[in-house]
Write a structure and sequence with these properties.
Layout: E1 7-9, H1 22-30, E2 35-42, E3 48-50, H2 71-74, H3 95-104, E4 108-113, H4 120-140, E5 149-152, H5 155-164, E6 169-174, H6 181-188, E7 192-196, H7 202-210, E8 214-218, H8 223-231, E9 236-239
Parallel strand pairs: 1-9, 2-4, 4-5, 5-6, 6-7, 7-8, 8-9
Antiparallel strand pairs: 2-3
The structure holds SN-glycerol-3-phosphate (G3P) and magnesium ion.
Protein name: Glycerophosphodiester phosphodiesterase
Domain GP-PDE: 5-249
GO molecular function: glycerophosphodiester phosphodiesterase activity
Length: 250
Amino acid sequence: MWPYPKIVAHRGAGKLAPENTLLAMQCGLEYGFHAVEFDVMLSKDGVPVLMHDPDFGRTVAGKGSVSNTLAKDLLQMDAGSWFDPRFSHVTVPDYESIFRFCQAHGIWMNVEIKPAPGFEKQTGEVVARTSQRLLAELKAEGQTVREPLFSSFAFDALMWAKQAAPELSLAYLLDEYECNWQASLEKLSAVSLNTNHKYLTADWAREIKSAGYGLFCYTVNDPVRAKELFSWGVDGFCTDRIDLIAADFA
Ligand code: G3P
Ligand code: MG
């Protein structure tokens, strides 16, 4: 059985707010979403932050890269203007503050470990250890916590995460079909395959479900397609269209 939410807001609030920011999480909440996916990468000094692209130029202006910038500088960067000039005060958030915000508001997290190329080991380990520490701290404070699902396209990052914190639940992300998908999940002791719905077929979905794995898709923005995927046994998906596909859609 899928123990996680079925409909998840992609990058915080999909297309309705600047991605991977606190504002996006707040926007998701306003739309009734208590489930988010977001991307985590390391700064030059090894601090996990929310960022999708390894290089600047799209969601933050200028030249440079996340892995070559100190956290103190990253956390001041404008991550909102690209979306709307009204949001120039919205900055790149650190993972810890978003993790705490989500747990405090009962928001379930699908944490996508997104290493910059060459940083798979460090990113997998740091995200896993940071999450393990935060979960322990919150539990010690008496807070009810929701166990996140950690996913990545980077197999090695997941292997390092598993080694650092074996109790965390992992999902392997695949874009297109790979014939050795099941062997990869077994090596990771992963609970779920998270895949691009565009390349999922009814047969492959059946195979995944028959093997006993969770099946989660990205990024589903069409309610008709969403219904088809559920009819194939898909357990859940993330969406950019939280305005079209309600949190209780399923
Ligand atoms: O985690 C699913 C989805 O977010 C993967 O693609 O590029 O949006 O991070 P991307
Ligand atoms: Mg992602």
